[in-house]
Amino acid sequence: MKKKFHIITYGCQMNRYDSAVLRSFLEEKGHRWTDDVVDADLIIVNTCTVRQHAENRAIGRLEELVSLKRKHPDKKVGIIGCVAQELGEKILKKIPTLDFVVGTDKISAIADIIDGTAEGKVYTDIDEKFYGLASPPHIEDGDFSAFVTIMRGCDNFCSYCIVPYVRGRERSKPPQKIIDEIKWAAERGVVEITLLGQNVNSYRYGDIDFPKLLEMVAQIENIARIRFITNHPKDFSKKILDVVEKYRNKIPASFHLPLQSGSDKILAAMNRKYTISQYLSIVEDIYRRFPDAIITTDIIVGFPGEDENDFLQTISALNEIGFGGIFAFRYSVRNGTTSAKLKDNVPETEKIARLNEIIKLGIRLAQKYSRKQIGTIQKVLLGNISKKNPEFITSTAPSGRVVLIPRKEFFKKFVDVKIEKASTWVLWGKPIIFHNKPF
Ligand code: SF4
Fold first, then answer.
1. Residues 39-49: pLDDT tens digits?
2. Distance CA 385, CA 393 (A)
3. How far is the CA of 208 from the centre of ligand 1 (A)?
4. Are residues 350 and 393 in the same domain?
5. Which domain holds residue 386?
6. Is 198 in the pocket of ligand 1 (CB under 6 A)?
7. What is the DSSP letter of 308?
8. Which of 148, 164, 189, 334 lies deepest, with the highest CB count within 10 Å?
9. What is the pLDDT of residues 54-68, one digit of tens each?
């Protein structure tokens, strides 16, 4: 019997992409999406396990949802994604009334579960040949931006990270599949693509490495802007910058380059495989070639063994580099990772104090970057009506900053905007020239 289904998604863009693909997959099988979770016969929770907090939130939500089954025993509620992969059977001990537990590589099992042809409730084998479901991701009418996953898994084993254990070894998706998917999205009006992977820089399929793939994507007609996340400093090459330079009109000089710590001692303990001076030389190269580049980063504070001196080295690196955005996290132990064997010896109060200091610094640096944009003319892609400021249209600048422009001006998709005002993360602009075609 055909079902009405709803997917709740936690975590990163890769999970959002997986949910969008799963939605298309189920719709192709005749099941129907509903926006209303209570109305759904089938509720799927796509989960993230990167931090304990994210895992707890997802489990809490599942507990709420299975309580709906008391009144409506026919409803099915299940878990997919990284928590399902990591915990498997164990989740059923916590929530025995869950209908299914499906890991990252076994997502197609959901179709059999709905049809009643599946045997058992738990599907968590890792399939090293799985590149994702064949269905293209669901695209809403009017969407101008879409994610495309180019690889799955990770081989880096950063000592604090659970991803390689739950997402398996690195697998690069065949380039033709990526190109077909982007063309399919472009035919539906998408003009901005973000290529996704745990470490896109290590993409390789036969002779095609990441710079070659990026160039192939840049040649697709009607795609106006290409972004890519996440980079890894150990694999970030000059060849990537060559492609960015060649296709500057399409690929913004906007790089998310996780630093994690400014101390070589801590970087080694994290198994990041680069030193601070190697990182600085990449940054120098980026700013030399693209003086208007924006670089954003991730930082973990309170990693085991991080002393005051290590922390000060991080602060000094952040100031020196002048990031346009810092995403800071407090270290927390993930069972099963290498760093879980280290003594978690930075007191919680100290972790919180360091985190707050980095957050404050991140805001100051982001404001500095945003203010520098005032008076510049930027090529933005018009998006949707702003939920917070309905009299404005949201759009994105090459840097990724949100630009708000007055709604009455919204009639074309590509526009040169003069930036007139800036807050930390948002720029306000006045449209100068409208273009009918991509820049
Ligand atoms: S690169 Fe490191 S932090 Fe990123 S997913 Fe792989 S192991 Fe985790």
1. 999 999 999 88
2. 4
3. 22
4. no
5. 377-435
6. yes
7. H
8. 148
9. 888 889 999 999 988
